[in-house]
Amino acid sequence: RLDAVAASGFSMSRSKAQELISSGRVQLNHRETLKADAPVAQGDVVSARGLGKFEVAEVGGLSKKGRTALLLRRYL
To answer: Model confidence over 25-46: pLDDT tens digits?
Structure first.
């Protein structure tokens, strides 16, 4: 989900990430996305106006709780 990945990448809560997405400040692969539940895959680029940009570099396995491990690469 875009909201969970954005929350992790920008160090914020998932509800705050949902607010950013619904306000139109978040882009997925250089396109504005208003759906917080949009799927995010390896190689996708997530950016937020005023917060920066990162790439989903690698999608790992599942944790014991069933969460997917991600490696995020931030742009400077």
So the answer is: 999 999 999 999 999 999 999 9
Please list, in sequence order, all residues whose beta carbon lies within 8 angstroms of the beta carbon of residue 3, skipping any fewer than 6 positions away. 14, 17, 18, 21, 36, 37
pTM, rounded to two decimals:
0.89
Closest of 38, 4, 34 to residue 22, by C-alpha: 34
Domain span at residue 40 reads 2-74
| DSSP single-letter state for residue 67 | P
The domain that contains 6 carries what CATH number?
3.10.290.10
- Class of residue 51 by CB neighbours under 10 A (exposed 0-12, middle 13-18, buried 19+): middle
In the chain, the number of structural domains is 1
